[in-house]
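call fold(seq) -> tokens
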Amino acid sequence: LTIPGTDKAVLMCVPSGGGKTTTALALAKGSFNLITDDSSVLVKEGGGFRIWGMPRALKVHRNTAAMLPWLVPLSDTWDINGEQPVDMATLAKKVGIAPDAVCELGAIIMIGQRSPEGHVIARTGKAEVLIALAHDNVGWRAQGMTPKAMRSYAVFAEAVQSVPVLKLSAGTDLAALPGLVEMALAEAMAAPS
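ret:
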């Protein structure tokens, strides 16, 4: 997602089924612009990192549709996983979509467990975020890491070190989420990492 009031992007990470798409859509309904879902490219450039999203449809789960009623109407055709693809052109009528552009990485948010007491977002340990990113994005085998996996891990480690990292546990009031996340990102990006 693009970060409001900046030319930077925030990368969100969580294993499949952890709420990335739901959270991204809730933020894009507010002041953020959606870049992509599930497939981003991160490249070191100069002293920082650039990120762009692969153009692809979002896989919206039926539970996401229930939590975000403004998504309706969707078709009543759900796959075996309870999901259906929704293309960016359709979403552009309902949420902010970023123009096709490469953005500087501004922050990383790791999505935690849902919070029954309300939204909680705070700075978190960089090691925890690196482990989460590596778990989903770096291939492992019994003999250890391949050279390609070691390069990927090194890029993630440097990216995590270079930007603020936060952990978000969302509550049930998803309409209030964009303002809270925007404020937390502004504070984190203004303070030293």
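The longest strand covers residues 103-111.
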